[in-house]
Amino acid sequence: AAVIGVPVCVFLTLFVVSLGTIFKGLKNLTLDLNAVESFLASGVVGLIGAVIVYALLRRRWAAQQSLPVETQLDRVEAVFGILVIITSCSVAFSHGANDVANAVGPLAGVIEIVNTNQVPQKVGVELWVLALGGLGIVLGLGTYGYRVMQTVGYKITEITPSRGVAADLGATVTVLACTRMGLPISTTHTLIGAIIGVGMARGITAVDRRTITSIALSWLITVPIVGVITMIFFTVARFFLG
Length: 242
Prior knowledge:
This protein is mainly alpha-helical. The longest helix is centred in the middle third of the chain and has 48 residues. The radius of gyration is 22 Å and the shape is flat. The N and C termini lie far apart (70 Å).
């Protein structure tokens, strides 16, 4: 089954990663393909990868059907271990495509207003603003990012490499689609939803409902807390700056 199933997963992985890269990452290289061309190019990349993996697995696993089932499953998961690295990188790519824009977009707007004393409909984002956004993500990962990793990786449900690939692909597709439509969403929220979906595919008892409740409550209280803090900052700034 894995000889057939793994190449399909490879095709989906390469297709999604290639499509996301072509749609969002290559415009600065003057490679601005339309939707049909992007889908065709991504499909070709995915198909080539799937054919290569199929040939390799068919040759490598031809005489291993007599092995114990546990051993076979371990070897299949080892293949997905490689894929989960690729799909995790695609999630990181989509993270930068959307979440960084949520932060640097308003900052770029403020800078444009200060410099021109006008409120334009669209503004350009300077390179140092993009660098600042990337630095912010790096600092966040380096300080408290490990707590998010622990929650997503261990506390919601049991994650294997194959389940991780499914969750990564679901999150990547959702975030890149929303990015393409100009919808600001949270990659972390999306990934947690994907992890919950992977867990619930094995039944409601496969997910830690206490952890999910805690996460949902933290989402609910975030908006009013941030609103109050912003009001305080704005009031203090207006008092001192006139």
